[in-house]
Amino acid sequence: MTALSQVLRKIDADEVVELTRALVRIPSVYRPDDPTATEAHVAEFVEAWLRREGFTVEVQEVAPGRPNVIGSLGEKRPGGRSLLLEGHTDVVTEGDPAEWSHPPFSGELVGGRIYGRGTADMKSGLAAAMAAAAAFRRSGVALRGKLVLGALVDEEDGMIGVRHLCTTPVGRELDAAIICEPEENELCLEQRGVVWARFRVRGKMAHGAMPEAGVNPIAALGRLLGAAPGLERRLRKVCEKSRHLRPPTVTPTIIQGPPHKVGVPQSNVIPAVAETTFDIRLTPGIGADGIRDELEAICREVARAQPGVKVEWEPVNAFRLATKVDRSEALVEAMVRGVKQATKRAPRYGGVPGSTDGTILRMELGIPIVTCGPGDRLIPHQVDEFVVADQVVEAARIYAASALNYLEAE
Ligand SMILES: [Zn+2]
């Protein structure tokens, strides 16, 4: 029997489905005002499961009650490879449970679908990755490289889990990663980037009846909003066009004048400060410097148009640029072959609409990433989130075959 069939035999469809349901039943919404509402319980479950399966397990306490769980098999030898199967343990809020037709943390299995918060995003992907990795140990097929299973915290917010991983030895030695996010099991070699830019305009506070005594930052804010479509057009020219990604967008999302921390809005007061935030989505083709230059140019243009105002901008959090991986990368070749072996069909390609932990791995470590996982691309964060059970099992088979192709049997 080939190594591949030995490994695939050890992936049990019912077990993959039950593992997904078990993970969904452990709520892991991070609620900053409740110290018990973190990823801790699901992380404990993953840790115990990996230990039972014979993995070497490392728990990284990223923040209080927020541990990354890292399981690994095999060693990276000189000149060898280390491959990460990446999932996150946090899920977004369930919203109003009354709106769900299946309780959000029940993991109900109905008509071949598993329902609940995190079924698609992404406890099914995590379960598939766990089952795929465990199949190597169970089958006795030893790999020439190191296979790492990462169950990370905080993907839905600041991505502190993956940022932490990138600073640790097991993270730094990675050569490639499969991001198990819901992409309908398509191979996604590109993902859009995101930059949140907060503009602050300073004017001079004055009475609303005597505007000539002040400098109104809100007028300048209007000019900033007016500049957004032009910025979007320029980004669409500079950035690459992709069959799999929607083009760049520039969307103003917040306006405050005055901002809460500076003052109270009053109908007869010209505020000293006004702010707006742009949510900028990118395709590959522009770097951090290019973005900064664009935003600074807008600030200068608006300041020139209205003497007396000061316009500046700052990033709301660290830039997450768009990423792209070449088809000739060894990981991509391993996955193309893996999809064919695991599913008997040719791979379909797609693109990731937002950023993921993979963005950070690509930016911080420079390693190739491919995003591929079970679940409808549009279903995450919705009420009645679900995943098709067969797709989860298919994902486990794809991960196992791809890992075997990339790391090779001993
Ligand atoms: Zn996700």
Condensed summary:
The chain has 410 residues and is of the alpha+beta class. The chain is built from 11 helices and 18 strands. Zinc ion (ZN) binds next to helix 4.
User: Major sheet: order of its strands?
Assistant: 1-2-6-3-7-17
Low-confidence stretches: none
Strand content: 15-25%
User: Strand count, sense and closure of the main sheet?
Assistant: 6 strands, mixed
The SSE order reads HHHEEEEEHEHHEEEEHEEEHEEHEHEEH
User: Which molecules are bound besides the chains?
Assistant: zinc ion
The helix-and-strand class reads alpha+beta
What overall form do the CA principal axes indicate? elongated
Describe the structure.
This protein has 410 residues and is of the alpha+beta class. Helix content is 35%, strand content 23%. The protein has helices at 3-9, 13-24, 40-52, 119-139, 160-165, 169-172, 217-238, 288-305, 330-343, 357-365, 389-407, and strands at 56-63, 66-73, 82-88, 109-110, 113-115, 146-152, 176-179, 187-191, 193-202, 206-207, 249-256, 269-270, 273-282, 310-315, 323-324, 349-352, 369-371, 386-388. Strand 4 (109-110) and strand 5 (113-115) form a beta hairpin. Helix 7 packs antiparallel against helix 8. The longest helix has 22 residues, at 217-238. It binds zinc ion. The site of zinc ion (ZN) has 5 residues, from helix 4. Zinc ion (ZN) is lined by residues 88, 121-122, 155, 181.
